[in-house]
Amino acid sequence: MCDNRDKKEILSKSMLWWNPARTESWQQLGINLVIDRREGYYLYDMDGHRLIDAHLNGGTYNLGHRNPEVVAALKEGLEHYDIGNHHFPSIVRAQLAEELARATPEGLRYSIFGSGGGEAVDTALKCARNATSRKKVISIQGCYHGHTGLAVATGDKRFSRPFLSNGDEQEFVQVPFNDLEAMEAALAQCDAACVIMETIPATYGFPIPREGYLQQVREMCSKYGSLYIADEVQTGLMRTGELWGVDTYGVKPDILVTAKGLSGGIYPITAAVVSEKAGQWLLDNGSAHMSTFGGSELGCIVALKVLEICQRPETRENVLFVAGYLSQGLERIKALYPDFFVGIRQKGVIMGLEFKHPEGAKYVMRSLYDNGVWAIYSMLDPRVLQFKAGLLYSPELCDDLLTRMEAGIGQAQKQAFETPKYCLL
Fold first, then answer.
1. For the chain, what percent of residues have pLDDT higher than 90?
2. CATH number for the 68-310 domain, one of 3.40.640.10, 3.30.200.20, 1.10.3720.10, 3.30.470.20?
3. d(CA 9, CA 6)
4. How far is the C-alpha of 56 from the C-alpha of 41, rounded, in Å?
5. Backbone torsion region of residue 238, taken as left when φ is above 0, otherwise alpha when ψ lies between -120 and 50, otherwise beta
6. 136, 161 contact by CB (below 8 A)
7. What is the pLDDT, as a whole number, of residue 163?
8. Tens digits of per-residue pLDDT, 340-388?
9. Are the beta carbons of 381 and 237 closer than 8 angstroms?
10. CA angle 254-255-258, nearest 5°?
11. How far apart are CA 151 and CA 257, in angstroms?
12. What is the 3-state secondary structure (H, E, C) of the chain?
């Protein structure tokens, strides 16, 4: 265990050599966190402060930190494999691609691997453009699909503007979530390569799709000759109680993107799983897109184990238990603070907690941190706390978490309304 002097040195080096603005912003928010030990669903600061992880880095740690089965799979893989060579067929890459074809919605066939979610989204967009011979991309206002070249242009201007990556407004079009009229108006021009959507937009605070919305967008895409890309980076891998969020809405996309949790939090790997139409270029020119680290063999081994764990009946049963148990507990807490804690957006263990204060979730994040819970406010809607339970939470952990949530939300309410000059960014 490092002492506080070492922690201060790390923070100083981060200011000097890593990311000054981000390091400083966390300090100003009172989040003095430098992660040291991590195990299961717990994080430990360098000074020993323990946190229940209820953010999971966007679902990267669905199965917990350093999941023993995933670690064991990687160690066994290291006896024989390295990252491999992306130019040639591979035993484990072929196995993972076959498993993804079986595990994803009907009609998806080829897996194109990457090492980051933004890279996988870029690949999906390129596939859509190739398949349709169109350039226009339709996305959702307030969305986030990554920081890479094409992906960042689909997202909120907060992410694209600093790098002059906004894109041509005729080429990258955004429409409001849950607005079918706006979506059809954008699609009806018959010039869109695709619609790309997070099944439940994470950075925007997990607003839930209205009844029939996703199905009708899927139908519109088919009607107007556009592909439907499901960004399942944060809603996939059993977080909704089914393997993919779109499964719960009866939607069959042309392309599905998975990342974060596919890595098990151990080895980076992502995939765009595409239909035959979207992957036609693979038959014509397999070298049109390449990624040296995409589909690394060690990553494939890890991903195969992650998929196997996620598809176990007992995992699904636990997700449904945790979702119901936490929902009941949070409803009870909401009743204690009805003037502050005003809503719960939920699909499985995906939750957005709404607070009646323009920056309420920032106050809650800080007070939860003090009470031993790590969860992050929604960057594009700071009234909402992103609350992401793990697939394998135990009943005991749920009870401990709810106790800390009750205390933290009560303290946040006082800070938000009784001390208006409390400094938050």
1. 87
2. 3.40.640.10
3. 5
4. 8
5. left
6. no
7. 79
8. 999 999 999 999 999 999 999 999 999 999 999 999 999 899 999 999 9
9. no
10. 150
11. 12
12. CCCHHHHHHHHHHHHHHHCHHHHHHHHHCCCCCCEEEEEECEEEECCCCEEEECCHHHHCCCCCECCHHHHHHHHHHHCCCCCCCCCCCCHHHHHHHHHHHHHCCCCEEEEEEECCHHHHHHHHHHHHHHHHCCCEEEEECCCCCCCCHHHHHHCCHHHHHHHCCCCCCCCEEEECCCCHHHHHHHHCCCCEEEEEEECCCCCCCCCCCCCCHHHHHHHHHHHHCCEEEEECCCCCCCCCCCCCHHHHHCCCCCEEEECHHHHCCCCCCEEEEEECCCCCHHHHCCCCCCCCCCCCHHHHHHHHHHHHHHCCHHHHHHHHHHHHHHHHHHHHHHHHCCCCEEEEEEECCEEEEEECCCCHHHHHHHHHHHCCEECEEECCEEEEEEEECCCCCCHHHHHHHHHHHHHHHHHHHHHHHHCCCCCCC
d(CA 65, CA 389): 13
At the second CATH level, the architecture of 4-61+312-418 is Alpha-Beta Complex (3.90)
Give residue 306's Cα distance to chain centre. Answer: 16
| 398 C-beta neighbours (distance < 10 Å), count | 18
Amino acid at 98: E
pLDDT band at 420 (very low <50, low <70, confident <90, very high): low
- Is residue 4 very low, low, confident or very high in pLDDT (cuts 50, 70, 90)? low
The pLDDT confidence band at residue 2, using thresholds 50, 70 and 90, is very low
Neighbour-count burial of 418, counting CB atoms closer than 10 A to its CB (0-12 exposed, 13-18 middle, 19+ buried): exposed
Provide the whole-model pTM.
0.95
Q: What residue ranges do the domains of the chain occupy? A: 4-61+312-418, 68-310
Strand pairing report for 108-114 and 270-275? antiparallel
Q: Is the dihedral of CA 131, 283, 112, 239 positive or negative?
A: positive
pLDDT tens-digit profile of 54-109?
999 999 999 999 999 999 999 999 999 999 999 999 999 999 999 999 999 999 99
CA–CA separation, 256 vs 232, rounded Å? 7
